[in-house]
Amino acid sequence: MTTAAAQPPRDRALGRGISTLIPQAATATPAEHAAAVLAAMQSVPVRVGVLQAAAVLLEARVRATEDGAERAAAATTVAMLRSAIGQAG
């Protein structure tokens, strides 16, 4: 009878590195979270359709919010998404 070779132990820290880049404090604003995620995700491939959907949702948020910091973060993110979409096309 044969048995399968034992799998090497999986690195438990896998995927935890990005959480150190994203503010975890309760005082971190959504804009701060978004900025950190964008910085961490700059080199990660994403489907164009996901970028387009995110841009549309954020454009609506830019028009709806009265929070200047949120509006600026969303507008910057939309510009980055549109730039990435243009580079992908």
Give a structural overview.
There is one protein chain. The chain is an all-alpha fold. The chain has a domain at 45-88. 61% of the residues lie in helices and 0% in strands. The protein is built from four helices and no strands. The chain has helices at 17-21, 30-40, 48-64, 68-88.
Average predicted confidence as pLDDT:
76
**Overall 3D geometry?**
globular
Radius of gyration: 19 Å
Tally of strands: 0
Question: What amount of the residues lies in strands?
Answer: under 5%
Distance from first to last alpha carbon: 55 Å
Q: How many distinct helices?
A: 4
Biggest β-sheet strands, sense, barrel: none
Unreliable segments (pLDDT under 50, ≥5 consecutive)?
Answer: none
Order of helices and strands: HHHH
Q: By helix and strand content, what is the structural category?
A: mainly alpha
Helix content: 55-70%
